[in-house]
Amino acid sequence: MTTYQIPGCAYCPSTVRACRVGEDEERGPGFCPSKVDADGIAGAADYRRDPFIERVAQVSAVVESEGYCKWTRVEEICHFAKRMGFRRVGIATCISFVDLSRVLSAILESHGLEVASVACKNGGVPKEDIGLRDEEKIRPGTYEAICNPISQ
């Protein structure tokens, strides 16, 4: 019998997907997060202790049920934000997708949302600042900024 150490949802056959139908010990594969990281799954249930996070979960579930297979993910975001009473949303994006983020921002703004967006290279921190040598850069001899998800 194989003992798994990490979750592997990407490998779960579409005929199993125990998490969708009510999981039990027999049905879920050995790499199922509930078997590999039961403590993590239990800890995630803490959302029930925070009224805001619980509301996020509830509204998300309602939006899912109303728009499932009818709405795009962008439409779901708009409906979710409206139901939550959000006026501002944020986009954290890879610098390579800034042009797509502009399109997404325009759509969200057309639904009355204010949009803040931050690209991964924000702050322009040189790769040398984190100890990279010039030959380790994509284009040695040029300036390159780090991806800065913490600042995002």
Can you summarize this structure?
With 152 residues, the chain is mainly α.
Structural summary, described in words:
The chain is mainly alpha-helical and 152 residues long. Among the domains are: 9-45, no CATH class; 50-86. It is built from six helices and two strands; from the N terminus they run αααααβαβ. It has a two-stranded parallel ribbon. Strand 1, helix 6 (98-110) and strand 2 (114-119) form a beta-alpha-beta unit. The protein is extended, with a radius of gyration of 21 Å. The model has no long low-confidence stretch (mean pLDDT 92).
| Rg from alpha-carbon coordinates | 21 Å
Compressed to H and E, one letter per element, the order equals HHHHHEHE
Q: Main β-sheet: number of strands, strand sense, barrel status?
A: 2 strands, parallel
| Discrete helix count | 6
Q: Work out the strand percent.
A: 5-15%
Write the layout of secondary structure elements.
Blueprint (H helix, E strand, L loop, with lengths): L17 H4 L11 H4 L1 H7 L6 H17 L5 H12 L3 E6 L4 H13 L3 E6 L33
Parallel strand pairs: 1-2
Helix pairs in contact: 4-5
Output the keywords.
mainly alpha; 2 strands; 6 helices; 152 residues; two-stranded parallel sheet
